[in-house]
Amino acid sequence: MPDPTLFGTAFVPITFDTFRYWKARSIEHLQRLNDRVMEIHRIQQEFGYCAIPDDDDDDPSPPYRTALLQRSKELGVIRTT
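RE: above sequence
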C-alpha cells in the first residue's frame, strides 16, 4: 500500500492482488488521474484489455482515450480497426 498523500491516490487494479497507483499533487491532479483511470476501465470493458501507463507517467492530460488506445495498439494487445 502506498503512503498516504495530502491530495489522494488513484488506483487501477492489474490482477486480483496487484495494482498500479499514482499519487496526486493537487485536487486537480487527482481529478485528472481518476478521469484516466475511468477511461482505462471503459477501454477494458470495450476491448478486454488496456495498457496501463507507467509509474513515471503520473501527470496525464486529456484526451486520455487516444493515448491509452495508441499505447495498447503499440503493445499489440488490442485492435481498433
